[in-house]
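Table S4 entry, Beta sliding clamp.
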Amino acid sequence: MRIIIERSNLLKALSHVHRVVERRNTIPILSNVLLKSEDGALRLKATDLDIEVTERVSAIDEQAGGTTVPAYLLYDIVRKLSDGAEVSLATSDDGGQLIVSSGRSRFRLQCLPEVDFPDITAGALSHSFSLSAGDLARLIERTQFAISTEETRYYLNGIYLHTIESEGDLRLRAVATDGHRLARAESVAPAGSEGMPGIIVPRKTVAELQKLISDAASDSMVAIELSEAKIRFTIGDVVITSKLIDGTFPDYQRVIPTGNDKALTLDRQSFAQAVDRVSTISSERGRAVKLAVSNGQLVLTVNSPDSGTATEELPVGYEADDIEIGFNARYLLDITGQLAGEEAVFMLADAGSPTLIRDGGDTGTLYVLMPMRV
Protein backbone atom coordinates (compact mmCIF):
# COMPACT_ATOMS: atom_id res chain seq x y z
CA MET A 1 0.00 0.00 0.00
CA ARG A 2 1.16 3.51 -0.78
CA ILE A 3 -1.04 6.55 -0.46
CA ILE A 4 -0.61 10.34 -0.15
CA ILE A 5 -3.17 12.35 1.81
CA GLU A 6 -3.65 15.83 3.25
CA ARG A 7 -2.76 15.90 6.94
CA SER A 8 -6.00 17.77 7.88
CA ASN A 9 -8.18 15.20 6.08
CA LEU A 10 -6.36 12.28 7.69
CA LEU A 11 -6.53 13.86 11.16
CA LYS A 12 -10.25 14.53 10.90
CA ALA A 13 -10.96 10.96 9.81
CA LEU A 14 -8.74 9.49 12.53
CA SER A 15 -10.44 11.68 15.15
CA HIS A 16 -13.78 10.14 14.15
CA VAL A 17 -12.72 6.48 14.13
CA HIS A 18 -10.04 6.15 16.83
CA ARG A 19 -12.39 7.08 19.70
CA VAL A 20 -14.15 3.70 19.66
CA VAL A 21 -10.85 1.89 20.29
CA GLU A 22 -10.41 0.87 23.93
CA ARG A 23 -7.03 1.96 25.30
CA ARG A 24 -6.56 -1.39 27.04
CA ASN A 25 -7.16 -4.48 24.95
CA THR A 26 -6.46 -8.16 25.54
CA ILE A 27 -6.79 -8.69 21.76
CA PRO A 28 -3.94 -6.72 20.09
CA ILE A 29 -5.71 -6.20 16.74
CA LEU A 30 -8.52 -4.29 18.50
CA SER A 31 -5.99 -1.57 19.42
CA ASN A 32 -5.42 -0.95 15.72
CA VAL A 33 -7.14 1.02 12.97
CA LEU A 34 -7.54 -0.57 9.55
CA LEU A 35 -6.16 1.50 6.66
CA LYS A 36 -7.11 0.44 3.12
CA SER A 37 -6.43 2.26 -0.13
CA GLU A 38 -9.12 1.83 -2.75
CA ASP A 39 -10.33 3.75 -5.83
CA GLY A 40 -8.55 7.03 -5.09
CA ALA A 41 -9.52 7.06 -1.43
CA LEU A 42 -8.36 5.86 1.98
CA ARG A 43 -10.84 3.86 4.06
CA LEU A 44 -10.31 3.79 7.82
CA LYS A 45 -12.07 1.41 10.19
CA ALA A 46 -11.94 0.85 13.96
CA THR A 47 -13.99 -1.38 16.25
CA ASP A 48 -14.36 -2.68 19.82
CA LEU A 49 -16.52 -5.61 18.58
CA ASP A 50 -19.68 -3.80 19.73
CA ILE A 51 -19.30 -0.61 17.64
CA GLU A 52 -17.60 -0.19 14.29
CA VAL A 53 -16.83 3.19 12.71
CA THR A 54 -15.65 3.55 9.13
CA GLU A 55 -14.80 6.65 7.11
CA ARG A 56 -13.73 7.16 3.52
CA VAL A 57 -11.53 10.13 2.68
CA SER A 58 -10.10 11.23 -0.68
CA ALA A 59 -6.39 10.63 -1.26
CA ILE A 60 -3.83 9.96 -4.02
CA ASP A 61 -3.87 6.19 -4.34
CA GLU A 62 -0.47 5.10 -5.71
CA GLN A 63 -0.58 1.42 -4.76
CA ALA A 64 -3.61 -0.52 -3.52
CA GLY A 65 -3.42 -2.49 -0.32
CA GLY A 66 -4.21 -2.40 3.36
CA THR A 67 -2.80 -2.86 6.84
CA THR A 68 -3.57 -2.13 10.50
CA VAL A 69 -1.58 0.07 12.91
CA PRO A 70 -2.07 1.23 16.53
CA ALA A 71 -4.93 3.75 16.39
CA TYR A 72 -3.93 6.13 19.20
CA LEU A 73 -0.27 6.14 18.16
CA LEU A 74 -1.08 7.06 14.55
CA TYR A 75 -3.56 9.71 15.71
CA ASP A 76 -0.95 11.32 18.00
CA ILE A 77 1.67 11.31 15.23
CA VAL A 78 -0.65 12.93 12.66
CA ARG A 79 -1.91 15.43 15.25
CA LYS A 80 1.66 16.66 15.85
CA LEU A 81 2.56 17.08 12.16
CA SER A 82 2.61 20.56 10.62
CA ASP A 83 -0.64 22.16 9.40
CA GLY A 84 -1.07 21.94 5.63
CA ALA A 85 1.42 19.09 5.30
CA GLU A 86 1.05 16.11 3.01
CA VAL A 87 1.38 12.67 4.62
CA SER A 88 2.65 9.57 2.86
CA LEU A 89 1.54 6.15 4.16
CA ALA A 90 3.36 3.15 2.73
CA THR A 91 3.80 -0.44 3.88
CA SER A 92 7.30 -1.94 3.97
CA ASP A 93 8.27 -4.67 1.49
CA ASP A 94 7.54 -7.42 3.99
CA GLY A 95 4.26 -5.75 5.12
CA GLY A 96 5.38 -5.76 8.76
CA GLN A 97 5.68 -1.98 9.10
CA LEU A 98 3.86 1.16 8.00
CA ILE A 99 6.15 4.04 7.01
CA VAL A 100 4.59 7.43 7.80
CA SER A 101 6.43 10.32 6.10
CA SER A 102 5.75 14.05 6.13
CA GLY A 103 8.38 16.68 5.34
CA ARG A 104 11.48 15.73 7.32
CA SER A 105 9.53 13.48 9.72
CA ARG A 106 9.56 9.72 9.24
CA PHE A 107 8.03 7.02 11.43
CA ARG A 108 8.04 3.24 11.11
CA LEU A 109 5.09 1.64 12.93
CA GLN A 110 4.57 -2.06 13.64
CA CYS A 111 1.63 -3.51 11.69
CA LEU A 112 -0.72 -6.45 12.08
CA PRO A 113 -2.20 -8.11 8.97
CA GLU A 114 -5.36 -6.72 7.44
CA VAL A 115 -6.91 -10.22 7.21
CA ASP A 116 -6.94 -10.49 11.03
CA PHE A 117 -9.08 -7.38 11.47
CA PRO A 118 -12.61 -8.25 12.68
CA ASP A 119 -15.68 -7.26 10.72
CA ILE A 120 -19.07 -6.56 12.31
CA THR A 121 -21.38 -7.90 9.64
CA ALA A 122 -24.68 -6.14 10.10
CA GLY A 123 -26.71 -8.81 8.31
CA ALA A 124 -30.15 -7.90 7.02
CA LEU A 125 -31.34 -4.55 8.35
CA SER A 126 -35.12 -4.64 8.13
CA HIS A 127 -35.96 -0.93 8.41
CA SER A 128 -34.32 2.15 6.89
CA PHE A 129 -35.20 5.82 7.05
CA SER A 130 -33.57 9.25 7.14
CA LEU A 131 -33.66 11.87 9.87
CA SER A 132 -32.12 15.35 9.86
CA ALA A 133 -28.98 15.71 11.96
CA GLY A 134 -30.72 18.47 13.95
CA ASP A 135 -33.72 16.27 14.85
CA LEU A 136 -31.51 13.32 15.80
CA ALA A 137 -29.25 15.57 17.88
CA ARG A 138 -32.28 16.95 19.72
CA LEU A 139 -33.62 13.46 20.53
CA ILE A 140 -30.22 12.47 21.92
CA GLU A 141 -29.45 15.68 23.82
CA ARG A 142 -32.85 15.79 25.53
CA THR A 143 -32.52 12.23 26.86
CA GLN A 144 -28.91 10.99 27.09
CA PHE A 145 -28.18 12.52 30.52
CA ALA A 146 -30.78 10.18 32.09
CA ILE A 147 -29.13 6.96 30.80
CA SER A 148 -28.33 4.64 33.71
CA THR A 149 -24.70 3.76 34.46
CA GLU A 150 -25.69 0.82 36.68
CA GLU A 151 -24.35 -2.24 34.86
CA THR A 152 -26.65 -4.71 36.65
CA ARG A 153 -29.65 -3.03 35.01
CA TYR A 154 -28.05 -3.27 31.59
CA TYR A 155 -31.37 -2.72 29.78
CA LEU A 156 -31.33 0.88 31.08
CA ASN A 157 -27.79 1.54 29.75
CA GLY A 158 -29.00 3.22 26.56
CA ILE A 159 -31.73 5.20 24.80
CA TYR A 160 -34.94 3.36 23.95
CA LEU A 161 -35.94 4.32 20.39
CA HIS A 162 -39.39 3.37 19.09
CA THR A 163 -42.43 4.65 17.21
CA ILE A 164 -45.78 5.34 18.82
CA GLU A 165 -49.19 6.63 17.74
CA SER A 166 -49.92 9.97 19.40
CA GLU A 167 -53.03 12.03 18.65
CA GLY A 168 -53.40 10.42 15.24
CA ASP A 169 -49.76 10.96 14.22
CA LEU A 170 -46.89 8.46 14.19
CA ARG A 171 -44.06 9.76 16.38
CA LEU A 172 -40.44 8.64 16.76
CA ARG A 173 -39.77 8.66 20.50
CA ALA A 174 -36.55 8.45 22.53
CA VAL A 175 -36.67 7.54 26.24
CA ALA A 176 -33.97 7.13 28.90
CA THR A 177 -34.22 6.51 32.64
CA ASP A 178 -31.99 5.56 35.55
CA GLY A 179 -34.82 4.90 38.01
CA HIS A 180 -34.50 8.36 39.63
CA ARG A 181 -35.46 10.42 36.58
CA LEU A 182 -36.94 9.80 33.17
CA ALA A 183 -36.45 11.82 29.98
CA ARG A 184 -38.69 11.56 26.91
CA ALA A 185 -38.35 13.38 23.60
CA GLU A 186 -40.03 12.84 20.26
CA SER A 187 -40.26 14.04 16.67
CA VAL A 188 -42.43 13.25 13.65
CA ALA A 189 -41.70 9.67 12.58
CA PRO A 190 -39.92 9.68 9.19
CA ALA A 191 -41.15 7.59 6.26
CA GLY A 192 -39.80 4.04 6.53
CA SER A 193 -39.88 3.88 10.34
CA GLU A 194 -43.37 2.38 10.44
CA GLY A 195 -43.40 -0.96 12.23
CA MET A 196 -39.77 -0.70 13.39
CA PRO A 197 -38.94 -2.76 16.48
CA GLY A 198 -38.35 -0.95 19.76
CA ILE A 199 -34.55 -0.87 20.20
CA ILE A 200 -32.09 0.16 22.92
CA VAL A 201 -29.07 2.06 21.55
CA PRO A 202 -26.07 1.60 23.94
CA ARG A 203 -24.60 4.50 25.90
CA LYS A 204 -21.20 4.38 24.14
CA THR A 205 -22.85 4.40 20.70
CA VAL A 206 -24.99 7.37 21.74
CA ALA A 207 -21.87 9.28 22.87
CA GLU A 208 -20.00 8.58 19.61
CA LEU A 209 -23.05 9.47 17.54
CA GLN A 210 -23.44 12.74 19.41
CA LYS A 211 -19.83 13.73 18.58
CA LEU A 212 -20.23 12.82 14.90
CA ILE A 213 -23.51 14.75 14.58
CA SER A 214 -21.89 17.84 16.11
CA ASP A 215 -19.52 17.95 13.09
CA ALA A 216 -22.43 17.77 10.62
CA ALA A 217 -24.70 20.59 9.44
CA SER A 218 -28.03 20.54 11.30
CA ASP A 219 -30.01 20.26 8.04
CA SER A 220 -27.91 17.38 6.67
CA MET A 221 -29.61 13.99 6.61
CA VAL A 222 -28.58 10.94 8.62
CA ALA A 223 -29.44 7.57 7.06
CA ILE A 224 -30.55 5.05 9.69
CA GLU A 225 -30.83 1.31 9.08
CA LEU A 226 -31.79 -1.12 11.84
CA SER A 227 -32.90 -4.57 12.82
CA GLU A 228 -33.65 -6.09 16.22
CA ALA A 229 -29.92 -6.73 16.81
CA LYS A 230 -27.98 -3.95 15.05
CA ILE A 231 -28.22 -0.34 13.90
CA ARG A 232 -26.24 1.63 11.33
CA PHE A 233 -25.97 5.41 11.01
CA THR A 234 -24.50 7.02 7.87
CA ILE A 235 -23.46 10.66 8.30
CA GLY A 236 -21.76 11.93 5.14
CA ASP A 237 -18.65 9.76 4.68
CA VAL A 238 -18.81 8.29 8.20
CA VAL A 239 -20.64 5.03 8.95
CA ILE A 240 -21.19 3.82 12.51
CA THR A 241 -22.52 0.30 13.02
CA SER A 242 -23.45 -0.91 16.48
CA LYS A 243 -24.90 -3.87 18.28
CA LEU A 244 -28.06 -3.09 20.25
CA ILE A 245 -28.71 -3.93 23.90
CA ASP A 246 -30.38 -7.34 24.05
CA GLY A 247 -33.00 -6.66 26.70
CA THR A 248 -36.53 -5.40 27.31
CA PHE A 249 -36.97 -1.74 28.20
CA PRO A 250 -39.47 -1.32 31.07
CA ASP A 251 -42.98 0.04 30.51
CA TYR A 252 -42.03 3.67 31.06
CA GLN A 253 -45.61 4.89 30.54
CA ARG A 254 -46.52 3.49 33.96
CA VAL A 255 -44.15 5.87 35.77
CA ILE A 256 -45.33 9.02 33.99
CA PRO A 257 -47.83 10.57 36.44
CA THR A 258 -51.26 11.54 35.11
CA GLY A 259 -52.97 12.95 38.21
CA ASN A 260 -50.53 15.74 39.13
CA ASP A 261 -52.76 18.82 39.35
CA LYS A 262 -50.57 21.44 41.07
CA ALA A 263 -49.00 23.55 38.31
CA LEU A 264 -45.83 25.49 39.16
CA THR A 265 -44.62 27.80 36.37
CA LEU A 266 -41.19 29.40 36.71
CA ASP A 267 -38.43 31.09 34.75
CA ARG A 268 -36.05 28.32 33.72
CA GLN A 269 -32.81 30.30 33.84
CA SER A 270 -33.53 32.07 37.15
CA PHE A 271 -34.51 28.76 38.74
CA ALA A 272 -31.38 26.96 37.51
CA GLN A 273 -29.14 29.75 38.79
CA ALA A 274 -30.89 29.73 42.18
CA VAL A 275 -30.54 25.94 42.50
CA ASP A 276 -26.86 26.20 41.59
CA ARG A 277 -26.28 28.93 44.21
CA VAL A 278 -28.03 27.29 47.17
CA SER A 279 -26.53 23.86 46.43
CA THR A 280 -23.02 25.31 46.80
CA ILE A 281 -23.02 24.52 50.51
CA SER A 282 -24.52 21.02 50.28
CA SER A 283 -22.45 17.89 50.67
CA GLU A 284 -21.73 15.96 47.48
CA ARG A 285 -23.54 12.89 48.84
CA GLY A 286 -26.91 14.44 49.54
CA ARG A 287 -27.29 17.52 47.38
CA ALA A 288 -30.96 17.74 48.35
CA VAL A 289 -32.77 21.03 47.68
CA LYS A 290 -36.12 21.67 49.38
CA LEU A 291 -38.73 23.56 47.36
CA ALA A 292 -41.38 25.26 49.48
CA VAL A 293 -44.13 26.54 47.17
CA SER A 294 -46.92 28.86 48.23
CA ASN A 295 -49.10 31.36 46.36
CA GLY A 296 -46.81 33.12 43.86
CA GLN A 297 -43.57 32.31 45.70
CA LEU A 298 -40.93 29.57 45.75
CA VAL A 299 -38.35 29.26 48.54
CA LEU A 300 -35.35 27.02 47.88
CA THR A 301 -33.52 25.73 50.96
CA VAL A 302 -30.42 23.61 51.48
CA ASN A 303 -29.34 22.42 54.93
CA SER A 304 -25.85 21.02 55.41
CA PRO A 305 -24.77 19.75 58.87
CA ASP A 306 -21.17 20.68 58.02
CA SER A 307 -21.57 24.00 56.22
CA GLY A 308 -24.82 25.67 57.29
CA THR A 309 -27.97 26.77 55.50
CA ALA A 310 -28.78 28.55 52.23
CA THR A 311 -32.14 29.94 51.09
CA GLU A 312 -33.33 31.87 48.06
CA GLU A 313 -36.75 33.16 47.04
CA LEU A 314 -38.17 33.30 43.52
CA PRO A 315 -41.45 34.70 42.17
CA VAL A 316 -43.41 31.93 40.42
CA GLY A 317 -46.81 31.18 38.99
CA TYR A 318 -48.64 28.94 41.50
CA GLU A 319 -52.22 28.96 42.77
CA ALA A 320 -52.69 25.51 44.36
CA ASP A 321 -52.25 24.34 47.97
CA ASP A 322 -48.89 24.98 49.67
CA ILE A 323 -46.39 22.14 49.23
CA GLU A 324 -42.85 21.27 50.31
CA ILE A 325 -40.85 18.79 48.23
CA GLY A 326 -37.16 17.89 47.89
CA PHE A 327 -35.09 17.03 44.82
CA ASN A 328 -31.51 16.12 43.99
CA ALA A 329 -29.88 19.40 42.92
CA ARG A 330 -27.80 17.84 40.15
CA TYR A 331 -30.86 16.18 38.65
CA LEU A 332 -32.71 19.51 38.64
CA LEU A 333 -29.78 21.20 36.89
CA ASP A 334 -29.49 18.38 34.33
CA ILE A 335 -33.15 18.73 33.39
CA THR A 336 -33.29 22.54 33.31
CA GLY A 337 -30.13 22.49 31.19
CA GLN A 338 -32.03 20.60 28.47
CA LEU A 339 -35.15 22.77 28.39
CA ALA A 340 -35.51 24.90 25.26
CA GLY A 341 -38.15 27.40 26.42
CA GLU A 342 -37.84 30.31 28.82
CA GLU A 343 -40.41 28.76 31.16
CA ALA A 344 -40.57 25.37 32.87
CA VAL A 345 -43.78 23.86 34.21
CA PHE A 346 -43.62 21.53 37.22
CA MET A 347 -46.75 19.41 37.70
CA LEU A 348 -46.78 18.41 41.38
CA ALA A 349 -48.91 15.95 43.40
CA ASP A 350 -47.42 15.61 46.88
CA ALA A 351 -44.03 15.40 48.63
CA GLY A 352 -43.67 11.66 48.03
CA SER A 353 -44.88 11.32 44.43
CA PRO A 354 -42.96 11.76 41.16
CA THR A 355 -43.10 15.22 39.58
CA LEU A 356 -43.74 15.85 35.90
CA ILE A 357 -41.66 18.61 34.28
CA ARG A 358 -42.66 20.07 30.92
CA ASP A 359 -40.70 22.31 28.58
CA GLY A 360 -42.49 25.55 27.75
CA GLY A 361 -40.71 25.65 24.37
CA ASP A 362 -41.02 21.99 23.32
CA THR A 363 -44.31 20.15 23.76
CA GLY A 364 -42.77 16.84 22.64
CA THR A 365 -40.38 16.72 25.59
CA LEU A 366 -41.18 15.79 29.17
CA TYR A 367 -39.28 14.72 32.27
CA VAL A 368 -40.22 12.77 35.39
CA LEU A 369 -38.25 13.31 38.59
CA MET A 370 -38.50 11.31 41.79
CA PRO A 371 -38.46 13.40 45.01
CA MET A 372 -36.00 13.12 47.91
CA ARG A 373 -36.71 13.26 51.61
CA VAL A 374 -35.55 16.55 53.15
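Helices lie at 7-17, 71-80, 133-143, 203-214, 268-278, 329-338.
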